[in-house]
Structures
1.
Amino acid sequence: GESVGLHLPTLSVQEGDNSIINCAYSNSASDYFIWYKQESGKGPQFIIDIRSNMDKRQGQRVTVLLNKTVKHLSLQIAATQPGDSAVYFCAEVTGTASKLTFGTGTRLQVTL
Amino acid sequence: DSGVTQTPKHLITATGQRVTLRCSPRSGDLSVYWYQQSLDQGLQFLIQYYNGEERAKGNILERFSAQQFPDLHSELNLSSLELGDSALYFCASSVDLGNYGYTFGSGTRLTVV
């Protein structure tokens, strides 16, 4: 069945360093992936997405890498800032089933 | 403000009661999705509506139901509430059937006592 999992529940990073958050998925038919950021008391906020015909996509300070061979997704945040502290979720969409399947989330803690 | 409006923000009710959560999608979005977020389950998909019709169902309990109205707002009805139903309930919307991003509301925190 569909499943999206995250390797690390908590990631602690020093301010200014780069952060890498990983995600594994099990459904090889998944063709659309989204990273969300969720701050305490708020709804998930879209960060960046990538389709299965791409390996890499860049946004402002964020890069998503997709490795379909090993069914792995990563989110890289450059020059991590205190405002980046949040829980990050990867989510996948498979074919015509347009619902998002979320991973369990990784909490990013930015230390000063 | 994401453009997706959920009301109420907080709700406290007793076991056995029934509540209705409301969602207004972002302007122009036709799809509405409901998710439940609890500490031990993460974000779980409940149900999706597109232009008034049910399109997909997740692990939604029979005690729960939803609908999308002609003006595209949606309501999630939770009945015979149990303590375990305490969670954050999120609504998300998208333009079409979800291939171009989803926008989430700020959620309704339901506490069942």
2.
Amino acid sequence: ILNVEQSPQSLHVQEGDSTNFTCSFPSSNFYALHWYRWETAKSPEALFVMTLNGDEKKKGRISATLNTKEGYSYLYIKGSQPEDSATYLCAPYYGGSQGNLIFGKGTKLSVKP
Amino acid sequence: DAGVTQSPTHLIKTRGQQVTLRCSPKSGHDTVSWYQQALGQGPQFIFQYYEEEERQRGNFPDRFSGHQFPNYSSELNVNALLLGDSALYLCASSLRRGGNQPQHFGDGTRLSIL
């Protein structure tokens, strides 16, 4: 059974703070890494899909990096805003017999105004 | 452009009963995946349907079965319900199979087993 670790489990920051989360995953037979943002009472929303080692993606104030050799990804939020409050989920995709996306438990971010 | 829609929103059943959950994918998508999210956990993959066939399956018993229709909509069936089946069930659609496509999720069906 593949284990995907996300840290921290939760994070409380002030508006304007910059923050980052970590996603660790087994690197063997890795194919792609997905990040999703899940706001309360809404559905998970795709942020990034990354496949290449060293890949960097950016969407507004949010960016992500990927290291496929050591099996980790970082998600960065610059100048956090209250609307960034959500649970951030990472999910590597291995395909084949491993199944579809393997989700971590997520990092719950709360941004205080 | 309609996104992924799931029905019903909430459902209460008793142990031993059977349940059917429904999902309509985002317009243009042909692949549907189902996930179970228990409290405090990340979503767990149940199975994926493409071209009306189950293509991938996670670690779930045969009590969990599904179907995909020609219009790409899908159903998740669970037989002989157990208390442990209480969870949020998410449907996600994507264009084609493969891990390089983002998945689009519905709002989920909250299933409670009494």
